[in-house]
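Comment thread on ticket #2218

A.B. wrote:
> Attaching the input chain for the structure job we discussed in standup.
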Amino acid sequence: MSLQPGMSANVTISLAGGMPGPGSYEGSITVGGGAVPVRVPYSYIVGDGVPRTLIPLTGDGFVTEAGTAVQWAFKAIDRYGAPVPAVQVRFAPAGSVYAATPATDAKGIAEAYLYTSEQTGEQSFLAQLQGAGGIEFRGRTRLQPLIVDNGVRDAASLLVPARFAPGSYVSIFGAGLSESTAVFRTPYLPLSLAGVSVSFDVPSADIHAPGHVSFVSDGQINVQIPWELAGADSAIMKVTLSNSASRSVRNDNGRLATFRTQTITVPIGPHSPAFFEYREAASGRTLAAAIDEQYRVITSGNPARPGKIVQFFMNGLGGVIDGSRPASGEISPPTPLARTTMNPEVSIGSMPARVEFSGLAPLNVGLYQVNCVLPAGLASGIQSVELAIGGVTARSSIVVQ
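C.D. wrote:
> Ran it. Output below, let me know if you need it in another format.
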């Protein structure tokens, strides 16, 4: 075929003649007439139908929960790289097979769903080809993540409040929640920590927001509830481990069913106030986490002073003034201060305390701060601290003065 300059045409090229014997054949097609000849190489393979190499496609190196199903697939090729179809395959152990292809398909591929052991640890399975070798799939299983009953709690009080406020921290308790212990080490809270992520969904409002994780371990996750949930009545919370976003299991009908890790419906409300506290080693008392005007921790050895400001650290005080709220997982700016939309009512030793500031603690993520003037006339010693906001009262704490 000849073409004039600037013209184009489609060309069909085919091989003719008898089928050659097994092997790999190469050649090239040369296009001339231009300034530079164009050489188009080609390769043609004729297989011998004898499996030589088994290539794992999916499933090898799996990480999943004990007692769940994993899909494995491999491809059989001969010595020339051609797929080998119609070779009988047997997966073992046979008692672990839920479903499997009996032979390789036209592309030399065979696959199976096999159930892992109920035991955790290293696992291996074998695919054996008739008249040929086999291929081993290795991986490991871990415990299925489990959130215990009433396992979603306020991260400060460790109580189960009537509702959780957006922007506040919750602690999730269970088993198998993470394969390692990790604490965030960035200025912001990450979306995933040690392969653990938490998400929140409000389908009726088309809200789908990730949580921002501060701590993970086998038995506990601490996460900030996204600000995006403001105004919602509840949210579906989902905990996911890496490599386990979904898994297949046998349902009541004996069929494979795919689902995500355990989900919990979490009630959401505008306020869920709680004091952060600490255990004082010297006295063994649990005291409110508070500092004085010199930013020193209030302790038995450094009591609060009447007429002076005490800064209490809180959780769950709710929304802040428009324009001052940081993004979920981000630090609160030092200016403008993110003040709460409502001022809490505080009493110390049954006496009202004047609130000088209530809002997000600057340069912290999701931590609230309430600055109060310690009432004059209080007797020295242990004093109870009460706080209420938006009609919700926090569990009382104590402070030394």
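A.B. wrote:
> Thanks. Noting for the ticket: Residues 274-400 form one domain.
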